[in-house]
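Hello, quick one for you while I still have it in my head. My current little project is about how a certain protein chain folds up. You're getting the sequence in one-letter code plus the fold written as tokens. Would you mind checking whether the tokens look sensible for this chain? Here's the protein in full, and shout if anything looks odd to you:
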Amino acid sequence: MKAILFDFDGVIIRSMENHFQGWRKAFGEYKIEISPEEVYVLEGQGVEEVGSQLTRKFNIPSQETPKIIEKKRQYFGEIKNFELYPHLLETLDWAKERMLKIGLVTGGNHEIVKRILQNFDIENYFDVIVTSEDVYLTKPSPEPYIRAAAILDVAPEDCIVVENSPLGIRSAKAANMKCIAITTTLSQLFLKEADVITDDLSKVLEALKKLY
């Protein structure tokens, strides 16, 4: 293992609940009630792709998709109660002490991700940040993780990925990387394709120590 690549929402930052509230309010204006699971299983793609899939699922005319996405962004932007997951700093410090490279690979918006990292003063932990704006294809394509490995100059098979969504796990495995899944938003049933499934970042750290 030469590098650890983290997903962002639901792994670094407790924010998927906020993303869900944004989508819930946006679709609520169309009298549609969505469940958290319906949003969480789509995580890892850019907001445009998530919005397109959800509007198709609920048979909303495609011309409404940009409006729904904008409403979601607006509602999400009003939420300020982000927090780091417990044991994150401990895990990042462990990796830094062992001179492992650390990457962030997310379907999120670069500007928003960078601002949140800066607010928590953890941006300097990451040697590379790959967002949906940096790739042609988002997760479950392997492109985001392959791109991160290439920038870090590390072979994909020398990378360990920490994910919390089925699409993210598929992306990592398709990139020929081992994947540790964490049940922050979805149960183990959704994460079966991962090499290891854990409950929190303290267990992720235990798994990393074994793989190291």
